[in-house]
Amino acid sequence: MIEVNDNFRELPVSYLFSEVGKRIAAFKKENPGKDVIRMDIGDVTRPLFPSVIKAMHAAVDDLSSASSFHGYGPEQGYAFLRDAIARNDYAERGIEGIEASDIFVSDGAKSDLGNLGDIYSPECSVAVMNPSYPVYVDDSVIDGRAGTFVNGRWDSLTYLECGESGSFMPAVPREKVDVIFLCFPNNPTGEAISRNELKKWVDYAKNNGSLIIYDSAYEAFVRQPGIVRSIYEIEGASEVAIEVRSFSKTAGFTGLRCGYTVVPKCLKGVYSNGEEVSLNSLWNRRQTTKFNGCSYVAQRGASAIYTAEGMADVKRASDYYLGNAKIIKDAFEAIGFKAFGGVNSPYVWACSPEDVDSWELFNLFLGRFGFSTTPGSGFGSAGDGFVRMTGFNSRENTEKAMSRLVEGYK
């Protein structure tokens, strides 16, 4: 038998959301016929936009004719989509210097967040927010950068603590860290970041030669002025940051799969011998070697988001999910819980006024009220005592679940 990657042995037995799914399935089996409303997983429920469907139908028609057929596409993405992204998500928002050639279309943010580890050294130190999306940590474990799991923490990772006392904002570390994962609007806390706060991180990265991997998958939900949607709103960020985005929550592409990553050409690294290299060129080489591109049909659908009709559809859908998040937040506050997020993000992060751990809360809401949550401890030690809820269910189900909660606490 072949020898395998020992790092997999260090991972938790199952991925957080898989574990939640198993426990919900077990509960349903033990309670047949009980209606369980899913408030845990960040999967959308609104159908694909009419503008997207129309574009995808036309793309399928293209594939039905020899004269308009598309086989292998460019690994970086088709020009029609990359140009639309550069123009609409950056240039027209006043962000200069992001060109179509800096943009790489993929099958989603989760893939890119893991695959980016291919282009920086195995010796790089990594910092993650605590709590944070589990993929950042698990990918670091698989790549051998996390070290050993001791007392609930990986000893080679730098944890950026994000607690209530600091409004869930991480503080820049005193020591030098090579690679920093930041996510805003944040998953799981739902909190967003101001320009002044993010500038501290750009300055830190410049001073320490660090790379920021900035996950802005939820930027379409930002509503308040002064809140960042792209890290490139901060002067000099293109010299220190890679930005990862997704159409999953923006346009309902969780099943269709399409996203993109921005690697500016001015972003540099060095080989072990000190030779300077463009990270854009490394990522391009990685993608052309290991990726055959996102499907033509999906990219045509994504390009429709940038039409006037598509942009209106994005606004309606994100408003709808934010409306659900408000219902959730209001309900938890009504029963005396502290609740955060839900304003510039579809996620609500809540904790009991009593000392109750995350899995106890999960069991309480599932068993007593018939709706699921995601235990905050699954996002890191600082998440214990919290649960995360999503606004991605239907309005009817959201109202039903929260009515059960409020009525049950009277």
Give a verbal description of the structure.
Strands 2-10-9-8-7-3-6 form a seven-stranded mixed β-sheet, with helices on both faces. It has a four-stranded antiparallel β-sheet with strand order 13-14-17-16. With 410 residues, it is an alpha/beta fold. The longest helix has 27 residues, at 308-334. The chain is globular, with a radius of gyration of 21 Å. It starts with 6 loop residues before the first helix and ends with a helix. Helix 3 (50-63) packs antiparallel against helix 10, helix 4 (79-90) runs parallel beside helix 10 (296-303) and helix 11 (308-334) packs parallel to helix 13. The chain has 13 helices and 17 strands. It has helices at residues 7-10, 16-30, 50-63, 79-90, 109-115, 134-142, 195-208, 248-251, 279-290, 296-303, 308-334, 358-369, 395-408; strands at 37-38, 103-106, 126-130, 149-150, 153-154, 157-161, 179-183, 211-215, 241-246, 259-262, 268-270, 276-278, 338-341, 347-351, 371-372, 374-375, 386-390.
Write the layout of secondary structure elements.
Layout: H1 7-10, H2 16-30, E1 37-38, H3 50-63, H4 79-90, E2 103-106, H5 109-115, E3 126-130, H6 134-142, E4 149-150, E5 153-154, E6 157-161, E7 179-183, H7 195-208, E8 211-215, E9 241-246, H8 248-251, E10 259-262, E11 268-270, E12 276-278, H9 279-290, H10 296-303, H11 308-334, E13 338-341, E14 347-351, H12 358-369, E15 371-372, E16 374-375, E17 386-390, H13 395-408
Parallel strand pairs: 1-15, 3-6, 3-7, 7-8, 8-9
Antiparallel strand pairs: 2-10, 4-5, 9-10, 11-12, 13-14, 14-17, 16-17
Helix pairs in contact: 3-10, 4-10, 11-13
